[in-house]
């Protein structure tokens, strides 16, 4: 028996990167997957987003595990689109046990800058809230909600340099910070109903978001056209352990634990998968 055998998971941002990794990892442990992604670019975001073919590949990888998968192209900024995608997935699988609100964008170096600010807020924060709120009527005792924030949300930018010091970058940081606060409050409301809600804070993760020209420029503003080779040594500033980034699977293992009954009494958690990055920012406190 898998660790989430017989459960159904709704995963946003599932076409590639962390979202794909989470969908496949949950399927490997017995969950059927409702996978959604926007599957087209957002003009103000300076790197390509997933394509329809990427979502098809996620479906293929889930099917390879022997589990069922339903896919839909939906924009998390639009609650009606998400609700319709979820309803169609529920028509196929009949239940919902796990919500992974993963979809997000980084707006560093985005143009025009104020549109990047808006698109990041609407995707990261409003999109997370939309994914959770269309799911709430379908959840019952034992369900688990997992939202992805970021170690960036934990940074005290008044004290340290911040690679995202522009409107799109600051929207990323603060949208992730408010995801953490939203889920904290939500967890308190859902706990008496036997539904859990937790946040994962990844550090730099080896995905197309990180490995992109805008991110390279954010980390190496001293260079006009920095390459991956230029940026990767600087990525290490985010972690206490001597690595430039973690892999999507490192986050997926945490998602799996929070989705499984192994964490059945864990709720309201702010779980850092950050290679010690938080340790570089704050002294010990309870």
From TrEMBL:
<dbReference type="InterPro" id="IPR002347">
    <property type="entry name" value="SDR_fam"/>
</dbReference>
<dbReference type="Pfam" id="PF13561">
    <property type="entry name" value="adh_short_C2"/>
</dbReference>
<dbReference type="GO" id="GO:0016491">
    <property type="term" value="F:oxidoreductase activity"/>
</dbReference>
<comment type="similarity">
    <text>Belongs to the short-chain dehydrogenases/reductases (SDR) family.</text>
</comment>
<keyword id="KW-0520">NAD</keyword>
<dbReference type="InterPro" id="IPR023985">
    <property type="entry name" value="SDR_subfam_1"/>
</dbReference>
<dbReference type="InterPro" id="IPR036291">
    <property type="entry name" value="NAD(P)-bd_dom_sf"/>
</dbReference>
<protein>
    <submittedName>
        <fullName>3-ketoacyl-ACP reductase</fullName>
    </submittedName>
</protein>
<keyword id="KW-0560">Oxidoreductase</keyword>
